[in-house]
Design goal:
5-stranded antiparallel sheet; single chain; about 30% helix
Length: about 80
């Protein structure tokens, strides 16, 4: 999978998201210079769903990402 990068999102919570073939990197609006790295079991599915959410003005990227974290689809890499 090629890397996908979403920047300058229409989100009050998320500044940018980068999906690579091994991880998801998220920068939050509150601290744009700090990148949080997450592990994800199914990166392709995550990337596909993220593209759908980003393209839909009725959907909230921040809420969707938060739900992925709560459902343990995204696990913060603490190493």
């Amino acid at each position: 999978m090629d890397s996908l990068v979403f920047e300058n999102l229409n989100s009050s919570a998320i500044f940018s998201i980068k999906v690579t073939n091994i991880e998801v990197n998220i920068a939050y609006q509150s601290k744009k210079e700090k990148i949080y790295t997450y592990n994800c079991d199914n990166l392709q599915e995550f990337a596909n769903n993220l593209q759908i959410v980003v393209k839909d003005p009725e959907k909230s990227v921040g809420s969707w990402v938060n739900r992925q974290i709560k459902e343990k689809s995204l696990i913060l890499n603490t190493i």
